[in-house]
């Protein structure tokens, strides 16, 4: 089906990419506006991929004429002063400017190498947040919108309006649908085989990240949240249940074996027992496809073949099968933005202006392609060209069959509409497939049907700042920053302190701080990432892993952290983060942070010490004085109102949930 996908919520001035899905490059596709606000002068051209820029608030309907019929897409445009970008700049590959909702957003880095995150500058609040909750109640399908105002704003949830849009792809009887405030109802006998409902919360200062729910009559094998009367409901924009409670392990494929002569995939298979002992659940390999001279593998020369220096497709499949047999999930590193300049298609395009591949790429000049950061070995694809989309979608289909998710490289540099298509394709074939985006800084709107989980670059930056001497409370500010920038409560994140692009934390900040940073990864809300070698003190970023020189004490410590996180419900994805008062009784107070994680029935207090010496911390509540990580008694004594504990780098103490929820 060539329908261009779900309805879009944008602000005037944002750009909406319009592209047929599952395109046939040889077919004819045309667009026209069939509805627009009276004051709008927006128009569309004659290309198969078009870009609509709403210029007046209201509802737009665009119609795609395709080989399989005509398809309508609704675009709801809000006034420009409700713009959702949060200060990001954006533009499509090829150098044209565009809005966040339709194009892509780029990364920002300060001169110190820390990531920058644009904040709210409205002076009165910021983006509200919304989560849609589906239910089957009697003979009705019901959707309720849970709204939250901006954490620092003057609005309340009662001040927010909710707008629902029915999905244009579904044959829903609109006359049967009733809306009352933040609730929508559809009689079950009016539901088609599939019904998708989208919504946003709208306030004086902005509109929320959209959310969606889906009702189906045939939902076998689909992860559902409600069912009844032969109808099931699910939340397609929520990460699969296995994801955020997982520990993710990144492997830089070509150096993992160390100085062994083993093939890369065999080396990983042989260490699956080791990864299991660390409590690893998910294995992410850096790119495994045929590539140019760069050992990182991100400059791809063939999107359908395993790199010859790594082995064959059969070798890769053998690794995946071995990992699955042991209960691991596998992430495939998906690169869509560019190819290597040594890709045969680019070589043809640059050598011959008449080549059929000339239109595959975006160009700065006759011989120089568009790229980012002046990277000299890659060339950006032009996603306005249907053969590019077809080629990459075919690659997605090939590799999605084998793995459990995609880690999506340079996600900000690929049109949002293309990611939406990949998201829907992957979820339709496996509702528990994971889409993890590398976007720096993170972008709240990527939660709306593009990705399930996001690199938490803000917490990464905070951990680096704390390692360098900033107040340790910054890690809590970073977590709270998720809501402040507009992420809904159901958003999921991957926490990391290092990866193949970053220097080793232990090199920059020392052993004690590295332990505390690891403690943050395993106890704050989010899925922790371990970059291979991090757990045993590897110092080189992309060097051969020094297995023979592993710090076994650190290795054991990380394994204990992982075990505690898996074993304690208070550290699960369902647990809240609660700030608590605490008193640092010796040593620098800004090197220590304490907080609680709580569910209805369980709670734990976490103390992180980024300093070089043990410190005594007074906690305001009674806790068990036995540290769950080390198993040691940490009570310092002499405290009649609460608990005093001594902490080296990380400690986790069981506590009463009711004490922390008062």
TrEMBL record:
Gly residues: bias regions: 88-111
One Pfam family recorded for the sequence: Alpha-amylase_C
GO molecular function: alpha-amylase activity; cation binding
Keyword tRNA-binding: no
Gene3D superfamilies registered for this protein in UniProt: Glycosidases, Golgi alpha-mannosidase II
Domain Glycosyl hydrolase family 13 catalytic: 250-565
BP-aspect Gene Ontology terms: oligosaccharide catabolic process
Hydrolase recorded as keyword: yes
Top-rank taxon, per record: Archaea
SMART domains: Aamy (SM00642)
Record keywords: Hydrolase
Signal sequence residues: none
Region (Disordered) location: 1-30, 72-132
Record-linked InterPro entries: A-amylase/branching_C, GH, GH13_alpha-amylase, GH13_cat_dom, Glyco_hydro_b
UniProt protein name: Alpha-amylase family glycosyl hydrolase
Source organism: Haloarcula terrestris
């Amino acid at each position: 089906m060539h329908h261009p996908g779900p309805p879009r919520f944008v602000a005037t001035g944002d750009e909406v990419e319009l592209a047929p899905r599952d395109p046939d490059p040889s077919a004819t596709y045309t667009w026209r506006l069939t509805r627009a606000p009276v004051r709008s002068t927006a128009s569309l051209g004659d290309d198969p991929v078009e870009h609509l820029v709403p210029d007046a608030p209201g509802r737009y309907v665009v119609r795609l004429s395709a080989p399989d019929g005509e398809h309508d897409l609704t675009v709801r445009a809000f006034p420009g002063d409700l713009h959702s970008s949060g200060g990001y700049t954006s533009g499509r590959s090829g150098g044209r400017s565009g809005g966040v909702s339709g194009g892509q957003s780029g990364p920002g880095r300060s001169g110190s190498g820390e990531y920058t995150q644009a904040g709210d500058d409205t002076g009165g609040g910021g983006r509200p947040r919304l989560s849609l909750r589906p239910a089957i109640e009697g003979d009705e399908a019901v959707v309720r919108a849970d709204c939250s105002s901006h954490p620092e704003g003057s609005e309340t949830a009662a001040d927010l309006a909710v707008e629902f849009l029915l999905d244009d792809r579904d044959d829903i009887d609109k006359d049967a649908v009733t809306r009352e405030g933040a609730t929508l109802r559809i009689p079950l006998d009016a539901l088609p085989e599939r019904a998708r409902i989208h919504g946003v919360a709208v306030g004086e200062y902005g509109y929320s990240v959209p959310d969606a729910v889906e009702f189906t009559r045939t939902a076998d094998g689909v992860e559902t949240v409600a069912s009844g009367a032969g109808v099931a409901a699910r939340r397609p924009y929520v990460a699969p249940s296995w994801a955020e409670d997982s520990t993710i392990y990144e492997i830089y494929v070509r150096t993992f074996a160390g100085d062994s002569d083993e093939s890369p995939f065999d080396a990983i298979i042989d260490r699956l027992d080791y990864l299991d002992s660390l409590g690893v659940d998910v294995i992410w390999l850096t790119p495994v496809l045929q590539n140019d001279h760069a050992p990182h593998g991100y400059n791809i020369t063939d999107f359908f073949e395993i790199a010859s220096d790594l082995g064959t497709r059969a070798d890769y499949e053998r690794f995946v099968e071995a990992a699955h047999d042991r209960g691991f999930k596998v992430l495939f590193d998906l690169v869509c933005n560019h190819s290597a300049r040594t890709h045969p298609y680019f070589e043809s395009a640059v050598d011959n202006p008449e080549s059929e591949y000339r239109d595959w790429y975006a160009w700065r000049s006759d011989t120089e392609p568009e790229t980012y950061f002046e990277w000299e070995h890659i060339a950006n694809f032009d996603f306005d060209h249907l053969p590019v989309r077809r080629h990459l979608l075919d690659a997605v289909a090939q590799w999605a069959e084998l793995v459990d998710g995609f880690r999506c490289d340079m996600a900000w540099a690929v049109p949002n509409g293309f990611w939406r298509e990949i998201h829907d394709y992957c979820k339709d074939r496996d509702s528990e497939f994971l889409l993890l985006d590398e976007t720096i800084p993170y972008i709240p709107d990527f939660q709306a049907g593009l990705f399930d989980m996001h690199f938490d670059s803000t917490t990464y930056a905070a951990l680096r700042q704390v390692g360098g001497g900033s107040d340790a409370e910054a890690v809590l500010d970073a977590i709270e920053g998720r809501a402040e920038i507009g992420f809904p409560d159901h958003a999921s994140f991957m926490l990391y302190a290092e990866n193949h692009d970053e220097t080793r934390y232990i090199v920059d900040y020392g052993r004690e701080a590295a332990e505390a940073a690891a403690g943050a990864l395993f106890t704050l809300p989010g899925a922790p990432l371990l970059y291979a070698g991090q757990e045993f003190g590897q110092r080189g970023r992309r060097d051969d892993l020094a297995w023979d020189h592993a710090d076994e004490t650190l290795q054991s410590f990380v394994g204990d952290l992982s075990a505690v996180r898996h074993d304690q419900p208070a550290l699960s994805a369902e647990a809240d983060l609660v700030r608590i008062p605490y008193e640092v009784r010796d040593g620098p107070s800004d090197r220590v942070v304490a907080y609680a994680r709580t569910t209805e029935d369980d709670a734990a207090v976490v103390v992180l010490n980024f300093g070089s010496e043990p410190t005594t911390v007074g906690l305001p509540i009674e806790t068990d004085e036995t540290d769950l990580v080390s198993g040691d008694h940490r009570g310092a004594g002499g405290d009649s109102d609460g608990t005093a504990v001594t902490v080296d780098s990380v400690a986790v103490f069981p506590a009463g949930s009711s004490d922390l929820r008062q």
